[in-house]
C-alpha cells in the first residue's frame, strides 16, 4: 500500500452516485421486471469508466470503481452469497430500531422515508439465512474486476481498491440454519474469503466495510468484562477471516451508519480505535467531518499508532451538501499528522456519497466539488508538513 512519503495522498470510501439511466435499469432488475441485461452491463461498464476518469480529474490518488454496478448492500449480499431468503417486512413494522431512533421518532420516520430506506430501488426486506452459506459471486466479481481494470487503463493514479463486506456486518441478518451465531459467522467468514482473495489476486487493494466497529460491534453497553470478551472474540474472528491475506493489501473502514441525524449516542474514536487497530489491516478509515467527531483527533494523544499502520480520517461529510473549505481540511489533516506522523496519514471522506444507488443525500455535482476540495486541502497540508 502506498503511503504519504512526500505529500498527503487522497482517497475515498467507495460509493459514488450512479447515473440516472443506470439506476432505472437497476430498478427493473431488482424488482423482477424485464430488462435488457446487455444494456445494463454496457451502461455499468461505461459508468465505471466515467467515474474513474472523474476521480483522476479531481486529483484523487487511490481510486476505485465507484461501486457503479452495485445498487445497495442487500442486493450485493444476495448476488454474492447463497443461503439467504428475502423476507418482506410486515405492514407498519419499523425498519430501524435503536436508541437514537427512539429518542427522535418523528425525525427518523420522515428521514427513513426520504433517504436510506426510501432510496432503495425495491421494497426493503430482511435477509434470513435458511441454508448453508456459500460464495456464488464469481461471475459478478469477475465483471467488477474487468470493468475497473479497463477503466484504469491509460489513467494516472497511485493505486486502486475494491470494496467488500465483512462477516461481522453480514451477521446482523437473521439466522435460522446454523445452531449458533459463532457457527453462522464462521460460515460467512469462510465464504467471503473467496471474494477477498479474488480482489487481491486481481492486483487491487481491498477495502472492508464494517460499520459495526464504530458501535464496538454491538457490545458497547455490555458489562465491562463481557464487552471486552466479546470484542476480543470479534477481532479474532475478523483476523481469522483475513488469514493469509497480507495486511498491506487491506483497508478497513468504519462509520456511524446514519448519514443525517443528531448522532448524540455515537461512540467516539477513542472508544473503539484500540481494538480496531488490532485487526490485521494496514489502513483504517473513520469519520471526522461530522461535527460530533471533529475533535476525535485527541484519541491519538494517548493511543499510539502501531508500527506499519496508517489512518484515513474522513475530511468530507457524507451527511451535508456543504463543500468543506480546503483550509479546514488542511488544518485537521495537519493535526492528525502531528500526532501519528505525516507518512501515516491519507485523507478521504466519512462514508460513501451513495451507499444506496438512488440516494441523493449528497447531490452528485456537490460530491465531485467535495473531492476537488479534498485534493486542494491535501495540497495545502502537504505544503505545511513538508515545507515545500
Describe the model.
- With 388 residues, this protein is of the alpha/beta class.
- It has a single domain, classed as TIM Barrel, CATH 3.20.20.
- Helices cover 41% and strands 13% of the residues.
- α1 crosses α2.
- The longest helix is centred in the C-terminal third of the chain and has 23 residues, at 364-386.
- It is globular, with a radius of gyration of 20 Å.
Brief account:
The chain has helices at residues 20-30, 37-58, 73-80, 99-103, 105-114, 138-152, 167-170, 181-201, 224-241, 269-276, 326-340, 364-386; strands at 9-10, 62-63, 81-88, 125-135, 159-165, 174-175, 205-209, 250-253, 283-286, 310-313, 346-347. It is an alpha/beta fold and 388 residues long.
Structure keywords:
single chain, 388 residues, alpha/beta, TIM Barrel, 6-stranded parallel sheet, 3-stranded mixed sheet, 12 helices, 41% helix
Write the layout of secondary structure elements.
Blueprint: E1 9-10, H1 20-30, H2 37-58, E2 62-63, H3 73-80, E3 81-88, H4 99-103, H5 105-114, E4 125-135, H6 138-152, E5 159-165, H7 167-170, E6 174-175, H8 181-201, E7 205-209, H9 224-241, E8 250-253, H10 269-276, E9 283-286, E10 310-313, H11 326-340, E11 346-347, H12 364-386
Parallel strand pairs: 1-11, 2-5, 4-6, 5-7, 7-8, 8-9, 9-10
Antiparallel strand pairs: 3-4
Amino acid at each position: 500500500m502506498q503511503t504519504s512519503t512526500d505529500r498527503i495522498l487522497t482517497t475515498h470510501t467507495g460509493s459514488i452516485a450512479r447515473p440516472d439511466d443506470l439506476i432505472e435499469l437497476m430498478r427493473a432488475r431488482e424488482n423482477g421486471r424485464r430488462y435488457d441485461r446487455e444494456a445494463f452491463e454496457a451502461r455499468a461498464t461505461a459508468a465505471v469508466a466515467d467515474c474513474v476518469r472523474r476521480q483522476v480529474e479531481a486529483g484523487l490518488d487511490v481510486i476505485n470503481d465507484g461501486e457503479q454496478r452495485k445498487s445497495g448492500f442487500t442486493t450485493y449480499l444476495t448476488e454474492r452469497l447463497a443461503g439467504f431468503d428475502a423476507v418482506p417486512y410486515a405492514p407498519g413494522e419499523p425498519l430501524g430500531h435503536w436508541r437514537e431512533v427512539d429518542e427522535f421518532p418523528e425525525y427518523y420516520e420522515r428521514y427513513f422515508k426520504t433517504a436510506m430506506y426510501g432510496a432503495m430501488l425495491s421494497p426493503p426486506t430482511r435477509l434470513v439465512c435458511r441454508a448453508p452459506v456459500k460464495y456464488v459471486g464469481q461471475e459478478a466479481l469477475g465483471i467488477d474486476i474487468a470493468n475497473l481494470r479497463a477503466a484504469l487503463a491509460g489513467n494516472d493514479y497511485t493505486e486502486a481498491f475494491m470494496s467488500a463486506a465483512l462477516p461481522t456486518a453480514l451477521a446482523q441478518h437473521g439466522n435460522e440454519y446454523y445452531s449458533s451465531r459463532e457457527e453462522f459467522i464462521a460460515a460467512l467468514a469462510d465464504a467471503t474469503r473467496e471474494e477477498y482473495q479474488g480482489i487481491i489476486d486481481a492486483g487491487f487493494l481491498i477495502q472492508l466495510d464494517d460499520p459495526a466497529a464504530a458501535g464496538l460491534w454491538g457490545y458497547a453497553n455490555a458489562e465491562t468484562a463481557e464487552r471486552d470478551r466479546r470484542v476480543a472474540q470479534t477481532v479474532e474472528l475478523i483476523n481469522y477471516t483475513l488469514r493469509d491475506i497480507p495486511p498491506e493489501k487491506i483497508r478497513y473502514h468504519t462509520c456511524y451508519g446514519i448519514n443525517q441525524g443528531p448522532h448524540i449516542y455515537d461512540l467516539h474514536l477513542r472508544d473503539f480505535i484500540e481494538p480496531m487497530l488490532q485487526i490485521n489491516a494496514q489502513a483504517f478509515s473513520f469519520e471526522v467531518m461530522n461535527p460530533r467527531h471533529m475533535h476525535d483527533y485527541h484519541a491519538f494523544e494517548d493511543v499510539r499508532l502501531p508500527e506499519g499502520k496508517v489512518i484515513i480520517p474522513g475530511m468530507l461529510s457524507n451527511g451535508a451538501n456543504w463543500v468543506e473549505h480546503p483550509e479546514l481540511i488542511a488544518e485537521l489533516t495537519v493535526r492528525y499528522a502531528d500526532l501519528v506522523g505525516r507518512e501515516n496519514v491519507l485523507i478521504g471522506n466519512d462514508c460513501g456519497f451513495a451507499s444506496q444507488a438512488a440516494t441523493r443525500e449528497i447531490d452528485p455535482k456537490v460530491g465531485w466539488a467535495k473531492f476537488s476540495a479534498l485534493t486542494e486541502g491535501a495540497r495545502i497540508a502537504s505544503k505545511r508538513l513538508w515545507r515545500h
